[in-house]
């Protein structure tokens, strides 16, 4: 024991020389970080979405928006879904809050369905209306759309301060937008001073500079904390007496892309010649039975097709179409709107502004008629198909269905599959113990003991005519396209 203690003491007291130390170069870890993308958003007080739904739809597509935040939608509970379905382009979703008990008011958000958004509630407030949701991503951003009625209310600053205290405590990244009906451009306005002091207290930034109303005041605001907002632009769209506020948000969102993989062979005019050349060079098929002959034929054709026209996989996003926007009249009126808008923005004359609004009304009227004709044709074609009719009514009157985030998780899907796999294995294990007592029933065929032993041979001379009259996708689609086979046969 004494010798061991002395040895430990010597080792502890022994000092190493720095000359004997080697410097090992450390490689930095490659941490894969997804690049932040620029998300395009817009804020607009629409002042009744009821008769402007298709124009709003066109604005979203024209300016390639990811989010459109609306105030004063003037929607009711019974009609909100149908109108928002018209306003939302294909592959878009929406959220909304209607004013209860009175006309007017209301806020809504229209956004691309690939973004994962979840609506939340922060309490009830009497001086303003709001819609709150958060966008899942890196970071997770809270969105708050506010509409404050123009009538004076002494409770607004107190209730808004209470709301900010809740948000700033629970969230580090958020955006507050909406129509506050406060002239923040007027330094002498009492409400503007109180709002500015409140924003400074919580360390918030207000990004809108310049008028957002036809009377020259700044009413529509974009307030943020902890996020990168850029490219703020105020533009008059002639849809209401408020201007539209465009801005960009840098974020790494959690998107749920709905894609489909398509496998196909690309066949052109040279494929048949290559096919015949490859067939001629391949060995002759020979077999003792018909089944073996067919298997070898299929194997030979598959190998040749893989050589001259290999299967290629292409993944594409599922995009729904809006065919009523592609009619000649709609396109012509859209062109007229663009010409009128360019002339008005160039001259700034009131007469050109009025002409632009008239062209917008004509364009909106034709869009409504084209959409009605499109769905009328679907109804007439499927008048006896109740399944299609009910599906169409559900699509037009209800919000789009979203896939639960849990179903998009690979881990959750694997857990689900493992659970049922283990369950099936346990059931089979229990049944295997009693396998000696199980008597398999005799399966009776539909035609008794009759067998398909003979058939009439087909006339070889009729084969070319049958091939030419056959559709391009037929029984040959698994191995050989009908059109290619017909060309090769000739």
UniProtKB/TrEMBL annotation:
What highest taxon heads this organism's lineage? Eukaryota
- Pfam families, A to Z: Exo_endo_phos (PF03372)
Endonuclease/exonuclease/phosphatase domain boundaries: 45-242
Q: Name one GO molecular function term.
A: catalytic activity
Cited PANTHER family: ENDO/EXONUCLEASE/PHOSPHATASE DOMAIN-CONTAINING PROTEIN, ENDONUCLEASE_EXONUCLEASE_PHOSPHATASE DOMAIN-CONTAINING PROTEIN
Could you tell me what this protein is called? Answer: Endonuclease/exonuclease/phosphatase domain-containing protein
């Amino acid at each position: 024991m004494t010798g061991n203690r002395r040895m430990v003491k010597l080792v502890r007291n022994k000092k190493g020389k720095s000359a004997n130390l080697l410097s090992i170069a450390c490689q930095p870890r490659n941490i894969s970080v997804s690049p932040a993308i620029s998300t395009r958003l817009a804020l607009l007080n629409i002042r009744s979405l009821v008769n402007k739904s298709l124009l709003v739809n066109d604005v979203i597509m024209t300016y390639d928006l990811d989010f459109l935040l609306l105030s004063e939608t003037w929607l009711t509970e019974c009609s909100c879904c149908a109108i928002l379905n018209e306003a939302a382009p294909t592959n878009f979703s929406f959220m909304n809050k209607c004013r209860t008990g009175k006309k007017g008011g209301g806020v809504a958000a229209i956004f691309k369905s690939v973004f994962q958004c979840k609506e939340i509630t922060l309490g009830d407030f009497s001086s303003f209306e709001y819609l709150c949701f958060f966008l899942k991503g890196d970071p997770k951003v809270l969105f708050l759309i506010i509409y404050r009625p123009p009538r004076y209310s002494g409770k607004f600053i107190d209730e808004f301060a209470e709301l900010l205290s809740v948000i700033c405590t629970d969230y580090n990244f958020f955006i507050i937008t909406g129509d506050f009906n406060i002239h923040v451009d007027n330094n002498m306005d009492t409400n503007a001073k109180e709002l500015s002091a409140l924003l400074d207290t919580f360390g918030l930034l207000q990004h809108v500079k310049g008028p957002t109303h036809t009377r020259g005041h700044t009413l529509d605001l974009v307030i943020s904390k902890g996020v990168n907002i850029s490219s703020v632009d105020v533009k008059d769209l002639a849809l209401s007496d408020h201007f539209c506020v465009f801005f960009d948000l840098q974020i790494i969102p959690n998107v749920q892309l709905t894609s489909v993989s398509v496998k196909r062979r690309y066949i052109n005019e040279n494929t048949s010649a290559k096919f015949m050349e490859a067939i001629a060079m391949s060995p002759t098929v020979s077999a003792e039975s018909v089944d073996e002959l067919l298997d070898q034929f299929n194997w030979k054709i598959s190998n040749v097709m893989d050589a001259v026209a290999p299967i290629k996989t292409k993944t594409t996003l599922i995009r729904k179409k809006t065919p009523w926007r592609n009619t000649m009249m709609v396109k012509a009126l859209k062109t007229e709107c663009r010409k009128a808008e360019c002339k008005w923005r160039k001259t700034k004359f009131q007469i050109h502004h009025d002409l632009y609004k008239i062209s917008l009304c004509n364009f909106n009227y034709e869009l409504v008629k084209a959409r009605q004709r499109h769905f009328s044709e679907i109804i007439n074609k499927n008048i006896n198909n109740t399944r299609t009719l009910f599906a169409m009514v559900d699509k037009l009157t209800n919000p789009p269905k979203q896939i639960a985030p849990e179903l998009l998780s690979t881990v959750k899907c694997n857990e689900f599959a493992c659970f049922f796999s283990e369950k099936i294995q346990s059931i089979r294990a229990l049944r295997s113990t009693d396998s000696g007592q199980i008597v398999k029933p005799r399966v009776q065929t539909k035609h008794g003991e009759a067998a398909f032993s003979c058939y009439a041979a087909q006339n070889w001379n009729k084969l070319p005519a049958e091939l030419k009259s056959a559709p391009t996708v037929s029984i040959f689609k698994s191995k050989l396209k009908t059109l290619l086979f017909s060309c090769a046969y000739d």
